[in-house]
Amino acid sequence: MLTATSAQAQTIAPIDRGWYDSVGSHTTTNENVIVGITDAGTVHRNWFVFAIPSGTYTSATIAFQLKPFAPSGFGLAGQYQSTDPTETYEMFDVNTSTASLIGGTGGVAAYNDFGTGTSYGSRVFSAADNNTTVIFTLNASALADINSAAGGNFAIGGVLQTATANGQTLFSFSATTGELSSSSLVLSAASVVPEPGTLALLGLGMLPMVGILVRRRHS
Question: Which pTM was predicted?
Fold first, then answer.
């Protein structure tokens, strides 16, 4: 009999990430993942694309890590910046093609896609999360889709659901260099090993073969 043991984690950096605004604009060289409403009133939603290793993650724990920091000279770059005490960030499945997302041609359709469809979970953020590593745990729907995407690419979108006014954002100025906000997907899958009893039975099963080999050597 086989049994599951402690989980083994894989940490995967995105192959690309960014934002689309409400008019469908995206700059392909900009990996900022700002989400919410800027001081100027522009609404952003963000997205991430990961290459999922081949395998089955049925018993896996999926976590999405967002690491906000505030480097000198950037104020609250990559962090929670809102006039509200808290904001709710929700993640969704993405049906827009990966090529369109990365190529900057997703447009308004991609922007809409990031905030609709199957929810992958939500989390309430506040200023207390600044300068910490925040773990965003994805739900069973996300896990099922990650399994379906194993061996290929998996895209996920995000929206700041409670942002209603200018100056309510999360992950502002979050780039991938230096101390700015980084992101990673952590996949945990349980290892499967034979139980001790199974190993013992296998050993007993090999004894007749050992006897045959011994007799052949003495004949």
Answer: 0.79
